[in-house]
Amino acid sequence: MNIILRAKKIKKSFYNPVHVEILKEIDLVVHQGETVAITGRSGGGKSTLLQILGTLESPCSGELEIGGELVSCFNKSKLRNKKLAFIFQSFHLLEDYTALDNVLMPARIGRQRSAPGSAAYIRGCDLLDQVGLSDRKHFNTKLLSGGEKQRVAIARALCNDPDIIFADEPSGNLDRQTSHQIHDLLLAFAKNSNKTLIIVTHDPELASLCSTNYRIENGELRQNL
Amino acid sequence: MFELSVACKYLIPRWRQLSVSIISLVSILVIALVVWLIIVFFSVKDGLENNWVNKIVTLTAPIRVTPTEKYYDSYYYLIDSVSAGSDYTTKSVGEKLQAESANPYDPRIDEELPAKWPKPDLDSQGNPRDLVKEVVQIASNISQVNGLKVSDFETTMAHLRLRFLRHLLEIGKQSQQFLDHATYIGSFDTETPNLSTMLLTPTAADFHNLLHMQEVANDDAQQTTPDTFQKVNLPLLQEGVKDFFSSVEIKALNPSSNDWSIPPSLLPKTANFRAAAILNEDSVTHLIIPVAITKLPSLIEQLNLKGSAAVPAEIQIDETGISVKLPEKEFQSLSPWVSITLQEGTPIPASLITRSLETMQKIAQIRFYVDLPIQNSRLKGEINLGKLEIAEAVSQNEAGKTFLALPDESGDGITLPNTAFGEPILLPRVFRDGGALIGDRGFLSYYSPTPSTIQEQYIPVVVVGFYDPGIMSIGGKYILANKSLTTSIRSGQPQEEILQGNGINIRFDNLNDTAKVKAALLAGFEHAGISQYWNVETYQEYPFSKDLIQQLDSEKNLFSIISLIIIIVACSNIISMLIILVNDKKLEIGILRSMGATSLNIAAIFGFCGIVMGTAGSLLGAGTAILTLRYINELTAFIGRLQGHDLFNPVFYGTVLPDELSITAIVLVVSVTAGISLLAGIVPALKASMLRPSAILRAE
Question: Are residues B585 and B656 in the same domain?
Fold first, then answer.
């Protein structure tokens, strides 16, 4: 399998108020279609690592390659729009927009036509259909339940057909039953469309469903075998 | 464009963002208010300036070419004074233009020239140059200027004395008034563009005066101390009155005071009227009937305020006669000494009974058919003009030329009537404010030197109209008359006074061509070698308009700066509103960044917010300004009524304010507002674009 993401000696420290080294020379290789779970205690650096891998945060040192190219050579915004996608614990949907508008937003940012009948629009409707929300596509997101919101977030993540999906505690705000549905949906999408999925979670059950498991301890990344 | 759609979404007022919504709304309203104010102010100001400048240009010309001292010292000018062919008199520019020869001097007839006489300016063929005709030729040959017209002008001075015969004519009082004024008299071309727009519409009082002046003979124009006036004989009176009614149609009459009583023939056979009874020691002296019963309380109030003891009364007319009922009393027959009249100022629709013109002996005997709906009845029948005033009349253009200055056939210039009573003159509106009316007669006096003494000369004049000279400094003294009048006054005056007020007017359609025409004239004069003889002045440089135009320009610049400052202050609200908005939308900024929005996209969203607010405010303001301008005169009249006096001085601003939208103002204000709003949006936009998405998302 192709290597889709490679992190070399990623380091990250904070100086607020004292010097804390969160990540110590992290090395990570992720392949196309692989599902990766990263676990660890709260404040251990899981989310920071995920944001660095997703180019939302810059490491203090180290290199990050996505699709075989150094991230520093890319326009990061463009990279995030075309190849990466995020799913957050708090859903982070845009308020005052409908479910479909949220799903289509990455396409609009990427200057794709999103008017009814356009390719992006059809894909957005299809994705909402796939997550079981075809009857909610014109609902304002404020009117949706937590599980529905996360489904919209999953559909939105898939809108621009990214290579890697980063999920930060995707079921952290959901009840157990809904969590299971979201896990199944997420992993099924990743598997069916051969997407790489990198999940940060506290949930051992979700971690166990992933093909590769890592644990962050004292700023170091260790694979759970 | 997703940035614009996001920006618009952010600006929609929501309860959740109450502070942002309120500040946005206030910002937009403040901008709208400022834009409204600036557009209305600039439109009205531009309109007034255009009116004023147009009036100056109409009374004069966009460019005037006047002789220099060198001209007056030249052989060309002086030679007329020693030539028999010119009656040994120097000529004005206009006369030079008409003269057949540039050099009337004939050595065989005329005396030998003195030794120090200036040498003639010769052309390439060795002939004396015709300086005036060369100017006219150069000016006429200027190309690519629409409506170019070249003509000479003359201005002179005389003393005007007008005689007012108002009361003398109407109620026989042995008194009269005079109005004396030192005046400039300007000749005007009847074809002067836009001249007719300056003409003031004759009022009912003008027609009234004009009609009554038909009784006055024209043989006492120079009367200065008479207590009476000479009446015309009956055939002349009838002829004059017939002429008047062939030019003027009277539509309504008006009881001027309580002196007029309703003739019994007008009263219906049976009727009931509510009226105000004026009492003198419990007995009724006058009964005043308002047109509508609803107006009775205010009529009684007015009469009581004037000091009359007025009470409500009921008048009953039936076959037994007229009886009146006062409060708490029974009906009593009305004494024949009690006059029944209408409320002062009630217009009575009237039409002339033409046959009465054949039989009348004096103006008051002219008869009219009247029909006035009053309360629940009508006053209908024939009456004498008597002491009634003309309340409404219209002049019929063609026939009206006998008495009034009217627009000519082209509608552009003015035709003065050929009146038998004297030279027709058009007076500036300040004379109307001073009590003058169309039809007033008087004379112009000036001093003319004779070989033995200086003699006062008189020229009888008749007022045929009024015009509005705008705010030109000499406008209040500037009488317009036929060129023949200025020429006859000028020819009788000493040389040094005559010569200053003549030259050549150069007119054209578009004032924007002024600089071009002036440059062409100067170049033409330079090329012809006659520039030393002529001054070329534009309307911005005339001594009587220079200060005014400079002041208008200064005011415009000053207000432009003030407007810019006001717009900046109004738009500064946008900065505070957008900073709050950025704080409110931090999470959304982080989400958009995570989806690939660049810093520039984020900056653009908030920049658009600024522009959208600025544009919305300016469009709202511009729309309101357009509406305001459409109804500006109704608005000012309404505010004037509330205040109890005119909001704007009509002498200065005219009777109606200009209501034309200044396109320059609207384009400038809307674009400047949008530009400043964009600038105001830049600071918050930069702040938003510099937010780190990871920090926002982690914090949330």
Answer: yes
